[in-house]
Amino acid sequence: MAEPSNPNYILDRRRLRRKLTFWRVAGLVLLGFVLIAGIARLTGLDPLSAARGEHIAEIAIDGVIVGSRERLDLIEELGNQDHVQAVIVKIDSPGGTTSGGEALYEALLALSTKKPVVATIDGVGASAAYMAALATNRIYARRASITGSIGVVYQSPNISEMMGKLGIRMEQIKSAPLKASPNPFSPTSPEARQAIQNLIDDSYEWFLDLVKERRNFDDATARELADGRVYSGDRALSTKLIDAIGSKEQAKEWLISEHNLNADIKVIRRASDESDAPLTLAMRALFVTFATTIGLSGGDSGFLSAVSAPAQLDGLISVWHPILD
Q1: Which residue of 27, 96, 131, 287 has the smallest Cβ count within 10 Å?
Q2: Residues whose CB is less than 8 angstroms from the CB of residue 218 and which lie 6 or more positions away in sequence, other chains included
Q3: How many domains does the chain have?
């Protein structure tokens, strides 16, 4: 055993003290971040909002809409942040689940009662994505963008003929004739087809009512436009499905002129994923440091990928795609 007077022993003790001090400080800092983030989550307040100053928040609705809880939480938080003077919703999405579009519509509609909200369709803003745009105070689109596709679809593959040719039969016992219908293993009965059609019709009528209410259409005009077709930005403007041709710049100009905002106000991109949140970014950095120290390779991406659940597109869908349509 090394003696206390041994120089190597003294150096080892000093190194150990430095390591302990580092991890104590890191632990306290991490705890502080966790507490601040927890308070912000519970109160709906952003502790860094004041540091950003008054600004227009820009959020993105892109990809397939599946009802992201994080995005809905972000929309709610923006409504509670005094430094956010208005919101620009940048849309580039073919749509997604009808329920996901409904959730976005309701969240954006609630936000629009607190502060001005403008949608800009960049690329594609169809089906459930157009449904979300309806909740805003004004809709912009580029001339060559694609929008519309107002409607609902249910799709189910059927491989019963192929199974018959292969000599395979699916045995099924169920509580009622319409349980688990339609299914891919047997032909769809007229009764099952009618039940699904009723479901589609109910959802379509609800979607149609949103279009009539938000775009101030009579029933005949709304039904003519809401036959599932897509429109270019120019055609959408002439049919009054959108309000103007433009993008973020024109949306910002309208917000400044119509709502008396500062002419120098900045547009700041806000995102619901942790990579955009400074508090969480710091916590991720501490996590990477810790993971690397204990020997976990790729401490950040590997761990986060492992705990991320894959998005699923299920149920009734309001989505536009050339292959589907």
Answers
A1: 27
A2: 212
A3: 2
